[in-house]
Write a structure and sequence with these properties.
2 copies of one chain form a homodimer. The radius of gyration of chain A is 26 Å and the shape is globular. The first copy, chain A, is α/β, with parallel strands linked by helices. In chain A, 42% of the residues lie in helices and 26% in strands. In chain A, the strands form 4 sheets. In chain A, strands 2-1-3-8-7-6 form a 6-stranded mixed sheet, sandwiched between helices. In chain A, helix 2 runs parallel beside helix 7, helix 3 crosses helix 4 and helix 11 runs parallel beside helix 16. Chain A has 3 domains: 170 residues, 3-Layer(aba) Sandwich (Molybdenum Cofactor Biosythetic Enzyme, Chain A); 79 residues, 2-Layer Sandwich (Alpha-Beta Plaits), CATH 3.30.70.2860; 154 residues, CinA-like (Maf protein, Alpha-Beta Complex), CATH 3.90.950. Chain A is built from 16 helices and 17 strands. Chains A and B meet through helix 1, helix 2, strand 2, helix 8 and strand 10 of A and helix 1, helix 2, strand 2, helix 8 and strand 10 of B.
Chain lengths: 414, 414
């Protein structure tokens, strides 16, 4: 089964909204072994929609369309679909009943605009939307499937998970390609390529390897084609085992694993606790740690000492260190980590202090310079990094570097 | 001038990477008054690239292509373009010189893989890449422009800003459409629509209005077609002035304004300072505040009291309040805000305490319940919100709600 995605909305074409729906949908289909040919974004325009649908029906078995189903007047997908299929709109009673319930439960009146949400093209099978007011619509044409869904991500996602993916899955009988993503931290793209060159050269002919760099990380995507998903996955497992022998510390996880999840798991497994003291990362390190559900089991908290006075008052960093070495220094970041460990009563503490930019750099301490410390029961480790000029990226890379420092310690020294 | 965007990379089609490049490019072209027809993502496949180029050249004057120019072996765009234009690869000496300098400055050896980055199709004009190793490529065919750029966002962005946008701008002579985005907080899509219905109904025929909902916010995009950008923009300004009279508190900014920037500006203008005390937002509120360059001028820091003991030890929340009312309560969040204000010595302090989920909910305090407090020199305000079930969204909405509380206070009471 081959598929494509059509995303509708002027907001996508003027760059106001990033098309996260398309990547989420692609992930889901990919997990079912369905390959996506194309992802297309077009405007809220009936002609564009018609052309895109003609094209897509000529190439693919499954078309997923999002957007343009809201109650407001700029949303025209439903009318365009009626025209395309040559049908009219009909009231879908179960949807109308759901709308009445949805509005009543919130103490709102069902107005005329909302009532129109229960109208669907006569040839479609409506798909319930438990998180909003616009139902999805399942169309079939010459054995091919076209599904139109709202553009609001969590409405669309619930619809896919509960209704659409199970049905698509049962109808899919394509050949198999298995993928695995390997998450790496600590080696740039070119350096990583050198490290694993011999392994890559020896990959069998039915394999494919892609490098996907991100700030501070490179993801490797390994794909294998096979007679069954199981045989392809087995081959991939063997290759990954070999790769782990070559870059054991650089691989931190697989698929959607994040550094914060991996560190959380290691802390939990070892029954250890963590706190943080942040300057340049300004809460982002704590945010990454606490974005993991259940993190309150091992994470106690943070002092964000953005102001130097706070570094002294709340963390007890010595005035001498601040005066003699400055806030961005090995001495101060070490004192921050040790103080956090003590004040929060945790096994470990991570601290960051750096020049995130764009302003605040000096010749000795340029934008991008970041000190990180890890206080442990035995020893306090520090590291110095030189990142780039982009504030957001410097903040993210500092937080990742700190997490990775803890990860390596938990792997090696516990 | 009409344009389209072609993004190349299997990672886009399996949903591993979100196509932020496309939205950034669309924004930039849009700002020049160039309309984008389509954004297309296709795989690293020469046939797909050829078909997409043929289609795009038949429709548009300008084609921006990203991806597939890295040094690793899965990147095939350059070879596909040679085939498409029927030319060979040639060494571009200035690029080779730049590569030597780039590698030497980092103390690295220039290897054979990197040297290949200096090869470009014979018919293109190379575009310098000051942030990486792969140059961009400018092609012309029958008066139409096609530009191929690396997929790494900051390399592509610098290339666009420094070299490509100025040249495109000087060649563009299309008709004019002006847009303005209005950022709102505090009213859902349907409710906002009711509030501004009369105003919307009275918009002139050359206007268009789009609702772009996000968790907690709705952006309104207003567009007007006109003889010149100036006349269209003037008409928009008049309409926005009228709208401000209808929903003055709900509009918090325009275009790319964020709540954290707006709050930062208000604090700076009033010469006031801020600290935070976070529980359920776990550092995300501090992160939003400190993501604004220069925020250290008005933001002193935060205590992230994820653990109840920390709420007591570092913030001095009373054991009685924690015992009698629980951490997620009006009493505790109030004490947190007041303690932060005092300990950090700031004019204002914001505090959050809630059940982010997915676990931890009870019948009395379900997932999504969030208390927020704002301590000011005069009074401490509190608010209770009931968000949803999604951890990430609850964290974000809580932080936004806190920022908006401070924004409204700064607007009204100072």
């Amino acid at each position: 089964m081959t598929a494509e995605i059509i995303s509708i909305g002027d907001e996508l074409l003027i760059g106001q909204v990033v098309n996260t729906n398309a990547s989420w949908l692609a992930q889901q289909l990919h997990a079912l072994g369905i390959s996506i040919h194309r992802v297309l974004a077009i405007s809220d325009n009936p002609d564009e929609i018609r052309t895109a649908l003609d094209d897509a029906f000529s190439r693919s078995d499954l078309i997923l369309m999002t957007g343009g189903l809201g109650p407001t007047r700029d949303d025209i997908t439903k009318h365009a679909l009626c025209e395309y299929f040559g049908v009219g709109l009909v009231i879908h009673e179960p949807t109308l009943a759901w709308l009445r319930k949805f509005f009543a439960s919130r103490g709102w009146q069902l107005n005329e605009t909302n009532r129109k949400q229960a109208e669907v093209p006569a040839n479609c099978e409506p798909i319930p939307n438990h998180n909003g007011t616009a139902p999805g619509m399942w169309f079939e044409k010459n054995g091919k499937i076209m599904i139109s869904m709202p553009g609001v991500p969590f409405e669309m996602e619930a619809m896919m998970e509960n209704h659409i993916l199970p049905r698509i899955s049962s109808r899919n009988d394509s050949h198999y390609v298995a993928h695995q993503t390997i998450q790496t931290y600590g080696a740039g793209e070119s350096y990583l390529m050198e490290l694993i060159r011999d392994w890559e050269d020896a990959l069998p002919a039915n394999f494919r390897l892609a490098y996907l760099p991100q700030p501070g990380m490179v993801r490797l995507r390994i794909s294998a084609y096979g007679k069954s998903r199981e045989s392809a996955m087995e081959q991939i497992d063997r290759q990954i085992e070999a790769l782990q022998g070559i870059i054991p510390e650089i691989i931190f996880g697989y698929d959607q694993d994040t550094l914060e999840e991996v560190v959380g798991k290691l802390l939990r497994q070892n029954n250890k606790t963590l706190s943080t003291a942040e300057s340049c990362t300004g809460g982002y390190l704590a945010h990454l740690v606490t974005s993991v559900p259940g993190s309150s089991d091992y994470y106690f908290g943070s002092v964000i000492a953005y102001d130097n006075k706070i570094k002294h008052d709340l963390l007890g960093v010595s005035d001498e260190s601040l005066r003699n070495f400055g806030a961005v220094s090995q001495q101060v970041v070490r004192e921050m980590a040790e103080a956090a460990r003590k004040r929060f009563g945790t096994d470990f503490a991570l601290a960051t202090s750096g020049v995130a930019g764009p302003a605040g750099g000096t010749p000795e301490k340029p934008v991008g310079l970041v000190w990180i410390a890890l206080a442990t029961p035995e020893i306090t480790l520090t590291s110095r990094s030189m990142f780039g000029e982009h504030r957001g990226r410097n903040i993210r890379r500092s937080a990742l570097e700190a997490l990775n420092m803890l990860r390596l310690y938990l792997l090696k020294d516990l």
